[in-house]
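#struct-help
A.M.: can someone run this one for me? Single chain, 98 residues.
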Amino acid sequence: EHYERSADPKVAHVDGLAHSGRVIFAAAAVMVAVFFTFALADPLPPKEMGIILGVAVLLDAVLIRLILLPVLLRLTGHAAWWSPAWLRKVLPKINFSH
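D.P.: on it. Structure tokens below:
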């Protein structure tokens, strides 16, 4: 959406992260809080499941979505939004910019 509007990968990266970073972190925080409440359960399997899922969501949100993906998008530049000509012909033309 931001790349279609600006055609600049650096601007799209900064605007996209500023636009959705807090939402991603807030959603992950809610999910982590819910999963970690399973650790208060009495039997062992729900405790294990809650801790494992909470840590997995936390790692996914912080490491993957807020650190690694933005870094990869910045390093790849315009190539991150490139697609082969044959694929552009097959896929429908969709615009995300408003």
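A.M.: thanks! The chain has a mean pLDDT of 88.
D.P.: also worth noting: Residues 44-76 form the longest helix (33 residues).
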